[in-house]
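Revision sheet: structure tokens.
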Amino acid sequence: MRDNVQLQIDRTIFYLYRNFIDPVFPIEPSIVIRKIPYCRYISYDRLAYVSHTTYQDVIAACNSLDGCTQYDIKKDRYLIAINDSDKYSASKARIRWTSAHELGHVLIGHFIELLDTDKNPSDIKDMEEEADYFAASLLAPLPAIRFLRAKRPADIRDWFGLSQTAAEYRWTDYQRTKIDEHMANYFKIFCPRSNIKDNQRMNTRRIDIVADAGFIG
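Predicted:
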């Protein structure tokens, strides 16, 4: 992943939390997508219906069982299509991850980059890694993990709605990343449905947080 892009992603995540995200975990990326003026979210089933085609045809057109994004160059708009069909039976964690991953491609600017025909396979690999980093940062921000005092990957899995594999990767990121104190202060814990003390482990899966509105100018 390119260093300058990682910084861009970090800044974008905090912008989203301030402007578009209701601070309740687990985050629902589909709601975030619908709040962005130039993005539209649609399910595979709905896309099949409005296109007068079949569910299988949509999978073939998207070339993905999970999801895809279509960029309309003339209108500068994005259609993010996600497979949340009962026919697929994907877990909610997988659907959230795919939605966040596709949003990452949009907000990082990958579709604009792809207009450059000189892109090579290593560039595409970087883009996929960057979209994954965006998804992980959106769904489970490291400052929030710190404030919630996660003790193991299972905590991240349960609180943030990740798959076990994604939670383990995020746990590794959490252990090896120095969290900037200024960024950490962005998150303030607010959990009215529990009697959590500072040194107690979280015992609820759905967590409310409030953001310090003065953090991002």
